[in-house]
Amino acid sequence: RPGGRGVVAAASYEARAFGLHSGMPLKTASRLCPQAIFIEGSFPKYRDASQKFMAILADFSPFLEPMGLDEAYLDVTGFESIYGSIHQMAIAIKQRIKNELGLCASVGIASCKVVAKVASELSKPDGLLEVARGEEPSFLAPLPVAKLPGIGKKTERILKSLGINTIGELSATPLGTLKSHFGASGEVLYRSASGIDDRKVELPGAAKSISRETTFDKDTKDRSLLKA
Predict the structure, then answer these.
(1) What's the predicted TM-score (pTM) here?
(2) Which part of the chain is the UmuC domain (predicted)?
């Protein structure tokens, strides 16, 4: 409900053009885009769609690492020849998702996780972008540093204060300089900016924690309500 105390869980690309984004209070979203249509979420439906989505991916390779409900890394090494090429395999994945779930999917193809993630983000909402092995640095270089996974607002501000605005400039920065400002994370930034990521696709294990939160329409100190 636009007048409630909830927040935007997700915004369509049309709504984003008006400044709406995930986590924004509904009142603010309604003010910025009065013509917006607000739809109440249904986690059971999302969970069902997610399970079907992951099942489709698992049909192409057993080496699957889910990253939330609607995103995953898939190592298809050795399986791509079945479809002629990894590009054709990605097209087949997108087509099955479209046919069976009625959903669009973006796909990033690369030799490592960090570059595949960036490629996928750049190809949203329904694209396919492949970065050939060896072309990772040149692909990343012109992009703003904020496009690199793991760089939030705070890190971006520090980098810009150092005169580092693009991923290429980040990769050209001496490792010692980055470590002096970011500690051990400086090396991760340096390697990621160079398109180097040795992380393997890891199969999901048991959940380490489970959490849930509820936003009430009004503040309350009623313990019986809170415990219900």
Answers:
(1) 0.84
(2) 1-152
Q: Return the pLDDT at 95.
A: 97
Does residue 8 belong to any structural domain of this protein?
A: yes
> For the residues of 106-174, what is the DSSP string, one character each?
-EEE-SSHHHHHHHHHHTTTT-EEE--TT-HHHHHTTSBGGGSTT--HHHHHHHHHTT--BHHHHHTS-
E strand or H helix at 79, and its extent?
Answer: none
What is the rounded CA–CA span in Å between residue 86 and residue 93?
Answer: 10
Kindly list the catalytic residues: 71
Q: Is-contact 189 154, C-beta < 8 A? A: no
**142 is in which domain, residue-wise?**
137-193
High-pLDDT (> 70) share of the chain, %: 96
- Do 105 and 68 lie in one domain? The reply is yes
Q: How far apart are the first and last CA of the chain?
A: 23
- The number of domains in the chain is 3
The pLDDT value recorded for residue 207 is 64
105 and 165: one domain?
no
Nearest to residue 38, comparing CAs of 28, 49, 30?
30
Task: Locate 11 and state its tokens.
Answer: 């915004």
In a domain, 76, yes or no: yes
Peptide bond into 125 cis (omega under 30): yes
3-state SS class at 70: coil
Cα angle for residues 39, 42, 43 (degrees, 5° grid): 140
Local structure of residue 83 (DSSP, 8 states): G
Please state, in angstroms and rounded to a whole number, the distance separating the CA atoms of residues 15 and 26. Answer: 13
